[in-house]
Amino acid sequence: MKSLRKKPWNRVDQPVYSIASKAGDQANMNICSYVTPVSMKPKRFIVALYKNTLTLELVRKNPEFILQYLTRDQHRLINLLGKKSGHAIDKISRLKNQVTVYNDFVVLKDCLAYAHLKAVAWLDGGDHWCTLCDVVAYKNIQEAVPLTLNYLRDKKIIST
Q1: How confident is the model at residue 10 (pLDDT cuts 50, 70, 90)?
Q2: Fewest CB atoms less than 10 Å from the CB: which of 4, 34, 69, 105?
Q3: What's the mean pLDDT in 50-65?
Q4: Which are the contacts of 64, defined by CB distance < 8 A and separation ≥ 6?
Q5: What angle do CA 91, 114, 21 make, to 5 degrees?
Q6: CA atoms within 13 A on the CB side of 49
């Protein structure tokens, strides 16, 4: 009955994504797990961006960004992209040969897929800003096992 001790929102596994954002000559990536499709026509997502982050600042300046679908093999990126601030370090330069370009954004190579999104509306969600996004374009990259929160918990990369 271990799962009954978990909070309801932690009982169902969820995918883990990365956001690639840019505005002017500044670019950043972060980790994002609060993402859900909300419409088929037009295809739309809601993405929650943590407050006081460089990613949020960049998306507020340039509403287009890339949702990167991560693979299990990319789990080691969580420490850099999810536990370090883009205000303090240049994450893109630390990724070196792990990046490529998609639709003029620096993105991670070896993802499952990319979705080019455009923020069209905002909602204050507490410690996150939620943005309703239109899908501008998408690209499938490879077949692989998706990275999930439970996998990160099993690897002791995250605790909640």
Answers
A1: confident
A2: 4
A3: 98
A4: 116, 117, 118, 119, 136
A5: 35
A6: 29
- Tell me how far apart the alpha carbons of residues 108 and 99 are, in angstroms, rounded to a whole number: 4
Query: What are 42's two structure tokens?
Result: 């037009």
Q: Is the pLDDT of residue 2 over 70?
A: no
Residue 4 has a pLDDT of: 78
Residue 160 has pLDDT above 60, yes or no: yes
- Options 3.40.50.2300, 2.40.50.840, 2.30.110.10, 3.30.2000.10; CATH of 14-143: 2.30.110.10
Q: Give a three-class secondary structure readout of the chain.
A: CHHHHCCHHHCCCCECEEEEEEECCEEEEEEECCEEEEECCCCEEEEEEECCCHHHHHHHHCCEEEEEECEHHHCCHHHHHHHCCCCCCCHHHHHHHHEEEECCEEEECCCCEEEEEEEEEEEECCCEEEEEEEEEEEEECCCCCECEHHHHHHCCCCCC
